[in-house]
Specification:
CATH architecture: 2-Layer Sandwich
Shape: globular
Number of strands: 14
Distance between the termini: 22 Å
Radius of gyration: 20 Å
CATH topology: HIT family, subunit A
CATH superfamily: HIT-like
Largest sheet: 9 strands, antiparallel
Strand content: 15-25%
């Protein structure tokens, strides 16, 4: 890629959201005298009797987890969305509010309290993938559920309240903001070109081979050209699929392999249990065909220079637009070496 992109400030366009990110590669050399995060290096036991998510333990609401042996899902005891929320709307001048219904679930990836996805075998991650698929289909088929968001917050720095390996699924009646942006951008491209936006983008990235971190027969792990977070990555299926429910068993295993590869590389990067937020964006579960959708999984890690120095989204990022210091290509070079 043109060397100007590696040396001078510029902005890059996010084709999925229609927004821009400011890139300032020269700032990566600035001295750091800001906050340093505490490294959580304590080895966790395989079982914690005080953990609300461990197999067989009692949760805060008094219910008891079964003696689960692999992946386990239950309805969140403190759901952000309520299934029985009444229908209502308020339109009082410029004061506008509408009811929102939904169901939130917790997915325990493993009964082993000490694990993370980076520590698990691909075949065990595949069990998590299969559960994600089932939940997407089951929740999406319910009345008033028009979108299913699968995500994970890993690490205390990401606000994770329990270190047990787990993620969440929030399903709701309307499309959340980020999904709505991607829905519009992908539909616009599909209507104009009659093909998937991400399929076209992926073809270009594979030809350039500048931001590809890893690939197998079915999936590509890359850093998007428009990445915001320092070591942001995205997993994209090579074939045009609207949602994870369209994967066959072999593709589920390949997806699990891709997750395993990138999470293990993350842990090697700064020799720590690498924090991130990850999430799957996929087609809504409304009555539309949604043929324009091409599902993908993104990882947004905050660490910038070391296990203790993270990227803060403040100041200009809050009031102007997202900004990053190291370029996507520089991040890719470092992650490639670790796979």
């Amino acid at each position: 890629m043109e060397t100007n992109l590696q040396d001078y400030s510029h902005k890059r366009y996010n084709i999925l959201t229609g927004e821009w990110v400011l890139v300032s590669p020269h700032r990566a050399k600035r001295p750091w005298q800001g906050q340093n995060e505490k490294i959580v290096s304590d080895l966790r036991p395989t079982y914690d009797p005080d953990c609300y998510l461990c197999s067989g333990n009692k949760r805060i609401n008094g219910e008891q987890n079964p003696k689960y042996e692999d992946v386990y899902v239950f309805t969140n005891d403190f759901s952000a969305l309520q299934k029985d929320s009444p229908d209502f709307s308020i339109h009082d001048g410029l004061l506008i509010a509408e009811s929102e219904k939904g169901i939130c679930r917790v997915v325990c990836f493993s009964p082993d309290h000490s694990m993370s996805l980076a520590d698990m075998k691909s075949e065990d991650i595949a069990k998590v993938v299969e559960l994600w698929k089932r939940e997407y289909v089951e929740l999406g088929a319910m009345k008033d559920i028009n979108y299913v968001q699968i995500f994970e917050n890993k690490g205390a720095v990401m606000g994770c309240s329990n270190p047990h390996p787990h993620g969440q699924i929030w399903s709701q009646s309307t499309l959340p903001n980020e999904v709505s942006k991607k829905d519009k951008q992908q539909k616009k491209y599909f209507d104009e070109h009659q093909k998937s936006l991400l399929e076209t983008y992926l073809k270009q990235e594979l030809e350039l081979d500048e931001r590809i971190i890893y690939q197998n027969d079915d999936f590509v792990v890359l850093t998007p050209f428009w990445a915001i977070w320092p070591f942001e990555t995205m997993i994209v299926p090579k074939t045009h699929q609207k949602n994870i429910g369209e994967m066959n068993q072999n593709e589920s295993l390949a997806f699990a392999d891709a997750i395993s590869k990138i999470t293990k590389a993350y842990d090697k990067l700064f020799e720590c249990s690498f924090p991130y937020s990850s999430g799957i964006h996929q087609s809504p579960t409304n009555e539309d065909s949604n043929g324009h959708w091409h599902w993908h999984m993104s990882f947004y890690p905050p660490l910038l220079r070391s296990a203790t120095v993270k990227k803060f989204m403040v100041g200009y990022e809050m009031f102007g637009s997202p900004q990053r210091d190291i370029t996507a290509e520089q991040a890719v070079n470092r992650l490639q070496e670790l796979i």
